[in-house]
Amino acid sequence: MKKLKFGLSAIGLAVGMAATGLSLPAFAGGPTMSEKDFEETNLKYFQRCAGCHGVLRKGATGKNLEPKNMLKKGQARLEKIISYGTEGGMNNFDDIFSKDEISKLATYIQMEPPVPPEMSLDQMKALTKQFVPLKDYPTKPLHGRNWENFFVVIERDAGKAAIIDGDTKEVIDHIDTGYAVHVIKGTEHHKKDHAKDVGRFWYTIGRDGKVNKIDLWQKPGKMLVAETQMAYDARDIAVSGDGKYVIAGGYWPAHFVIMDAETLEPLKVVSTRGYNTKGEYINEARVAAIYTAPNESAFIVAVKETGKMLQVDYTDLDNLTITAIESAEFLHDGFFDPTGRYFQIAANASNKMVVVDTKDAKLEKMIDVDKLPHPGPGANWIDEKCGPVGGTTHLGVGLVSVWGNDPINHPDQAWKLCYEVETDGAGVFIRTHEKSDYVWADQLKHPEPEVQQSVQVFDKKTREIVKTIRVTEEEGKAALHMEFNQDGTEVWVSVWNRADAKNPTGEIVVYDAKTLKEKKRIKGLTTPTGKFNVFNRANHKT
Amino acid sequence: MKKLKFGLSAIGLAVGMAATGLSLPAFAGGPTMSEKDFEETNLKYFQRCAGCHGVLRKGATGKNLEPKNMLKKGQARLEKIISYGTEGGMNNFDDIFSKDEISKLATYIQMEPPVPPEMSLDQMKALTKQFVPLKDYPTKPLHGRNWENFFVVIERDAGKAAIIDGDTKEVIDHIDTGYAVHVIKGTEHHKKDHAKDVGRFWYTIGRDGKVNKIDLWQKPGKMLVAETQMAYDARDIAVSGDGKYVIAGGYWPAHFVIMDAETLEPLKVVSTRGYNTKGEYINEARVAAIYTAPNESAFIVAVKETGKMLQVDYTDLDNLTITAIESAEFLHDGFFDPTGRYFQIAANASNKMVVVDTKDAKLEKMIDVDKLPHPGPGANWIDEKCGPVGGTTHLGVGLVSVWGNDPINHPDQAWKLCYEVETDGAGVFIRTHEKSDYVWADQLKHPEPEVQQSVQVFDKKTREIVKTIRVTEEEGKAALHMEFNQDGTEVWVSVWNRADAKNPTGEIVVYDAKTLKEKKRIKGLTTPTGKFNVFNRANHKT
């Protein structure tokens, strides 16, 4: 069996991928293709399909695509499904792939999936770089700007993070990061520990496992200070309460890595492979999301396929204590309640919100919601009847579900559905602010451009939609992800340039949080996605 | 690729193995054999070689045997090594395998290793049986015997456990167990929790992963009360301090399983696959040994290849807390200190004794000892100069190493070598008793029959060998493993009928613990191995 390179190296995205090899599957009988085509198609599968179906094609959010199932469907049917999608939730790809590419993907999934290589701690260490030595870190901001109102913005298809001055709306830097960064997190205020200069350092995690450290006190052009790589495929990252450690989670290899937050030197790698809630072994048990507990010296690691929430005590890495909290599959993304004690996360294939009590490191409750909950950054606010509540959008239905989340003072309402708000389309992100009367929800998953380009706003008091805002009307564009500014007076919404994803033709539209009127359009951004306001994120204004 | 059955099913040892299948490696080019020969040789490899070299042949106690390395050596050289062994520690197999079998094994290890199947919790549940319903358990012993002086004895090659009345020396039962039982453990006294009827229930773990529950209050012939299977290959088992849970560890799949101690119903399975101390991913990360902490509500799980000691809190299985204590490879077997706080375990490839503090769930110390330490049940006693000490035999050298193990009252001596005693041959087991003046060590690993058939006894006071006892002089027999009786007046030594392993021609020789003179020979046993005195084990008389 000949060795072929795995995935990303072909387009030069991953650091150090050239050294990794895997065995080409045996091609005797059955559907086949040339080695070159296989390698190219493997890369396309990895970039566009593996997220939902898994590298090993066992299925997760998407269906199982192992040859035993695919061979039954056959080439023609598979091509049709890839081209036009299905009722079951599969997207159409006829606007993303050519006919020839779709044909090859249909063949590829009828062949044995290649198993990608492992990654050792030594490999990660070899990929760790300091662009600015620690001794040269500034002791105060080197620019006169109000850095606590900076927005750190993912420019997804550019492999960059934009830094935007929230006061002046100027884009002051575009920083090179990993490919298709999923999340960026900064240091946050913590009940027990205290990170120095909270909100100053930010950490990006690329889809390719690349981790970058950003120093907001540096001058534009100098903000990227360190880099490493901790996986070939990754999704989330977090910083410890004391600011000492960064943790990032891999899709492949299925593990999490704890790094020194100063240098990004990888210190500890822990496998997440294991058994799901039914007691079946899962080799591709991917880390979907990672958070820092605001009150405990602990990370929260959500393992998608095993339905395990891992509460990882970071006070002693040599004697690492982890509580594996059994919940439901497939865990995706979540947010803390306002007290910082309870973590609320979507188990989207189970149509549940899972609540973990980080004080006692145990499952608090599971709340039944609708099809495929997905809160993104989430939203907490006060409801007149139910008291403190949390809410989520759903990938599978145009609906915001709202539940009580204050078991101490509102035990009767706690972890029960309080009410639901129907929206025009299924969405990905929900957001509010303590000073705002409104809750915002996007509708990114709706197939109609008109809906996909609009976000909806409902009133916390009346629980009714007060405005549908068409954020863009341009063809091939979509609206998504809301973030408030430092003082809660503005809401920033991203506009993806879907059809022109390689160029800086995306934008962020700024709305007045009170009047809901457009204030400003910030242009020159490539597929702007998640946006993180320094002050709000550092102070848990969720 | 055709499916072939894995391993043990061929000789009917494993329960439910028939359902498992694996892919036959591709045979194009290179050394090869028929499918039937491959299956038979695979089984032989599994029984005799996998213990040291691993199912995936990555190596552990033995060398890496992957095809890339084996093909270089070639057929003739490999046959020689298998036949006559090596200086490096490989045993000779010319007395165990025929020339034809050796030739096939040499070919087999040049071919790709087949990956054995996984085992789910549901599969284990389907293999769980009650021979005696709980409601029919007796409320007092059904025989008039002093069951606290019973010896539970492994009859290795018969797949049985013998129950011997320590007062009368009668063999009162031979109980069917898994194949080549490695360890049998009973309920023990615990500082916090309290098992009912301590010492009554005993649990066996077969090499084939079969778990059996023995009730010593039943009449002979009725003592086997429940059964399950938790792996295809396993080594150790333990019972929780409260007597509620049984835990067993797998070599393959690499996991541990927590069962209901009443019914043996499997409740929880946890993978041990993960990263070693160098940060390299290990798929075959085998559970070498499992113990119950006498003072904490915790199991101690030693993972051989990763060098991780897992302290598993069993108070909440749904929110399972595990501390992974980083130590050294390859962890093997160990014993608690007299206070029950410190666990002392051999990391035999690192030539270290690892000490874990179960109170704080952290590494206490690593002690450098000689080649391949192996304490078996271990020995603790009081030394006049060093105070409380522990000792180990070594697989690689005829030497007993003795270290201080009382950090509270003898901090200067704690976890430092106190002295060493040279013996005639490398051994596997060491043993003593608080009432005895002597420490006993066997010499099972020495190639000369004369030494292998003798155990050596040294004086705790003079630190010198006072007697070499030739336990047997019969050809093809060896002496191993010592156990004291309830009041510490007798020492029982096993005699393996190596060359006639299928017949009950082995014996146990009973010595007076004071005069060191032979008192009795208990005959009719098949390869008697580990022996467990109910009272001593239940009361931590180590």
TrEMBL record, chains A, B:
Matches recorded under InterPro entries: Cyt_c-like_dom, Cyt_c-like_dom_sf, Cyt_cd1_C_sf, Haem_d1_sf, Host-pathogen_enzymatic-act
Cytochrome c domain boundaries: 29-113
SUPFAM superfamilies: C-terminal (heme d1) domain of cytochrome cd1-nitrite reductase, Cytochrome c
Residues making up the signal peptide according to the UniProt record: 1-28
Residue ranges the record marks as coiled coil: none
PROSITE patterns reported in the protein's UniProt record: CYTC
Record has Signal as a keyword: yes
Keywords: Heme, Iron, Metal-binding, Signal
The keyword NADP is assigned to this record: no
Any Pfam family: Cytochrome_CBB3
Protein name: Nitrite reductase
Species: Litoribacillus peritrichatus
The organism's taxonomic lineage, starting at the top: Bacteria, Pseudomonadati, Pseudomonadota, Gammaproteobacteria, Oceanospirillales
Gene giving rise to this polypeptide: nirS
